[in-house]
Structures are given as C-alpha cells and as structure tokens.
Amino acid sequence: MDSTPQQGNAHIGVTGLAVMGSNLARNLARNGFTVAVHNRTAAKTRALVEEFGHEGAFVAAESAAEFVAALERPRRLVVMVKAGEPTDAVIREFAPLLEPGDIVVDGGNAHFEDTRRRERELRELGIHFAGVGISGGEEGALLGPSIMPGGSKESYEALGPLLERISAKAADGTPCTSHVGPDGAGHFVKMVHNGIEYADMQLIAEAYHLLREVAGFSPERIAETFRAWNRGRLDSYLIEITAEVLAHVDAATGRPFVDVVADRAEQKGTGRWTVQIALDLGVPVSGIAEAVFARAVSGHTALRSASRGLAGPVPVPLAGEAAEAFAARVEQALYASKVVSYTQGFDQIRAGSGEYGWGVDLGAVAALWRGGCIIRAAFLDRIRAAYATRPELPSLLADEGFAAETAAAQDDWRAVIATAVAQGVPVPAFSASLAYYDALRAERLPAALTQGQRDYFGAHTYRRVDREGAYHTLWSGDRTEVRTD
User: Fold this and answer.
1) How far apart (Å, rounded) are the C-alpha atoms in residues 413 and 207?
2) 252 DSSP assignment
3) Which residue is catalytic, options 197, 206, 331, 405?
4) Is 44 one of the catalytic residues?
5) Is 171 helix (H, G, I), strand (E, B) or coil?
6) What does the DSSP assignment read for 424-443?
7) Residues 6+ apart with CB under 8 A from 166
8) Roughly what angle, to the nearest 10 degrees, separates helices 185-213 and 112-123?
9) Helices (H), 167-218
10) Strands across the sheet with 481-483, in order?
11) β-strand pairing of 481-483 with 35-38
12) Is 190 part of the annotated catalytic residue set?
C-alpha cells in the first residue's frame, strides 16, 4: 500500500468516502486495482488507508489536484457523494483539472435527467460522463454489486474491465454489469430497479399481512412459510431477508421484532421518480405506484388515527387446513403480482429507451439484476431467456411460460383479493396488479365512454372503430358528427 500521491499510477479514483464510497474503493483494491482515494475531509481519507490499507493498493490524496495527478490516463474518477447539488459541486471542482478523454463516473442515485445534463456539459469539454447505477447497498459495494453503467461506448471500454471484475457474479459466472446505453440510461434503469423494489417489498408485506390477519399465523410461523417459498419459484433476496426479519425477536421485550417497529415506512425518492416518469411517458405502472402510495399512507399517522373508527369488517382468522389452504393461495397471488410488477418495470424501460434513443437490451438488464442487487431473484434468468428468445417481446405477460403461470394462478389470485376485501385487509398492490392483468386481457375498456365525455365538454375528438379519422360530435343542436382531421 502506498499512501503518497504519485503521478499517474492509480487505475481509478474514488472521491466521497462515506460508507458506499469507502466500500467501493475497498472492493476495487481487493480486486487488484490501485485506487486513489479522496474526501472533502482529509481525515476520512487517512482513516480509510490506515484501517484498510492492508486490503490492497491505495493512494491517498488530500487535494483535488493531488487526486487527479495520481490517476493514469484516461483518468477514471468515481464520484460517490449525495445526489443533486453536491454532485454538481464536485464536478465543478474537478472538471478544470481534467483533460479530453478523461471519465467522470457518478455512482450515486442521481435523477437520470441530471445525468443527461451533466453528460452534455462535460461532452463539450471532451470529457466523458458515465452515470452508473449501483445496487446492493453497503454489502454489495464491498462484496460485489449489480452495476448499471450508462454513458458513451468509449467510456465503457475504459471502465468495463474494472466494473466486471468488482461486480457480483450470476450463478453461471457472468458479471452482473454491462453497458446499458448512452447518457442517462444507466441511472434510468437503476431508477426502475428501485421502483420494482418498492413493488416487490409491498407485495411481500401484503402477503405477510394476509397470513397474519386472515390465516392467523404468528410471525415465526410466517417466517417458516417464507423460507419454504424461498426454496421454490419465489427464490429471491427479499424473500430470504423477510424470513430473517420475521423470525427475529426483540431482546428488550421478548416480542416479535416486527411488532415493536412503528408501522410507518420511509422512502428516499427513487420510487416516486419511477411513478412520475412513468406518467410522463404514459406507461401504466399501477403496481409500483400503489407501493409508493402505501408508504405514503403509512406515514399519515394523524389521518390514520382520526379514521380508525370508520365502519368495516374486522378480520376473523382461519384455522387448521383452511389456514394452510389460504396460505397456498397467497403464494400464487404473490407470484402472479410479482410477474406483473416486473412486467410494468420492463415496459417502462422499453418506453424510456425509445423516448431517449438509448437502445437498451431488456434481456441484458435482466441478466445484470441476477446477482448483487436488492431485487435479485431466481426468475430473472427466465426473464433474460424470454427476451433473448424474443427481443421484441411486447410484454412479459406475452411470454408463453409467464402467461401459463399467471393463468394457473388467477383463480387463487382472485380468491385472495376477494377474501382480503371481505375481511377488510388492504391489499392495494395485489389489487392493482390483478386490475392491470384484467385490463390487458379485456376485449373493450370503458375508455370509449371517457372519450365521449371528453368530446362533450372539451371537443377533444374521438376515433371510431368502423372508419379512419378523428371525429367530433356537435353536442348542442342536432348532434352532428364531423371529421376533424
């Protein structure tokens, strides 16, 4: 380990040494790369090298100039600071010290539109800017995350070998990273990943709630159920940790941990971004949206307190074989709803790719989510295979395998939601997922009436099923129909 800045011997540099930045720097060093490290507070840089210098080759830099000078050309500079203005401030500090061909990497949870702006601005200076989504939390940053790099192909040629070395590896040994697309594509895909994560977590929470309130299972019994599910088609990181959380007992009270935690879920914003951008793109992500709103409802404690006296049923737990049978139906409903949430997420990525001209490979996205990230799950390999077989697959629900599974699950899916409604147990994500499924398969939707209403009050026109063109009815008078295009 060398803690003295040298001219151009570091393969890559990391500035911003909070937990994620420190762990990413350590991951790079552990994998044989010489890593320049820098932080606004020099004491944090020194502390990292003193504590972890034995893990690999670090070059500690106290100033921005020393940090840049320590990097080999083309310089690869990873920024690991808070999204928004802090990221812009770091870029303003370092850009004047860089040269054409150098690469600035934003590894934070940036909004993809900010990434697109930064890429344009630095491109004018001849500097590459790569917005790189990183998923896996603190542990993933250290041991191997899923990495979603955006930016130019040239920047990936310089970054790819390093990212592939430090990323998580799928079961078949494939690195969980690949070039996603230009400018903001990487951060867009990371945003949708987080939206799917919100939906996945909400669906699991609703399954837990149903098993607790309707099946009458204890948290420990539900943990056993989730462990069993994790040995089947629901095999995933989130199901695995759910079982651990539910089995945990609070040391101070001896009660189940889940019963001593306040039922107010927080959020950092990427789920909201997913829904907001989906609205802009006109893509229905209703399951993801309900997951975001469920967190919002949980946080309105005063409103919830004022509403607890509202009329409605009180759940009556089942017992014996009836409870076991209901639990099996919940597994079916959870799986089918999960397929819908991934369907909506991949549809949004396709729409974003088309809107911004990114050319994102959906199968490749599924492949890089197979390890390291929060939504890693066994069935992502099936999603990868589905898009590899049919690159123009219009929807995951159009895949023969997923279509057959949702068809087989639908009776139980409907029964679970009907039971939840009858028992007064809220299941917004389950319900929205089934409604989306039914809307897609419907021969006709009531949107025809909606168009009639819009034409009546706003002359917004409508189209007919029997001839081409846009039409408007003169609703006052004799209601004459006129073609308007």
Assistant:
1) 11
2) T
3) 197
4) no
5) coil
6) T---HHHHHHHHHHHHHH-S
7) 24, 27, 28, 31, 144, 145, 147
8) 170
9) 185-213
10) 462-463, 470-473, 481-483
11) unpaired
12) yes
A 10 A CB-CB count for 231 gives: 9
User: Can you give the pLDDT of all 485 residues of the chain as single tens digits?
Assistant: 444 444 579 999 999 999 999 999 999 999 999 999 999 999 999 999 999 999 999 999 999 999 999 999 999 999 999 999 999 999 999 999 999 999 999 999 999 999 999 999 999 999 999 999 999 999 999 999 999 999 999 999 999 999 999 999 999 999 999 999 999 999 999 999 999 999 999 999 999 999 999 999 999 999 999 999 999 999 999 999 999 999 999 999 999 999 999 998 887 778 899 999 999 999 999 999 999 999 999 999 999 999 999 999 999 999 999 999 999 999 999 999 999 999 999 999 999 999 999 999 999 999 999 999 999 999 999 999 999 999 999 999 999 999 999 999 999 999 999 999 999 999 999 999 999 999 999 999 999 999 999 999 999 999 999 999 999 999 988 888 888 98
With tokens 């630095």, the residue in question is 122
Q: How many residues are listed for the chain in this entry?
A: 485
Distance CA 61, CA 58 (A): 10
Question: What are the φ and ψ backbone dihedral angles of 218, each rounded to 5 degrees?
Answer: -80, 160
Task: Exactly one of 50, 164, 190, 266 is catalytic; name it.
Answer: 190
- Specify the pTM: 0.94
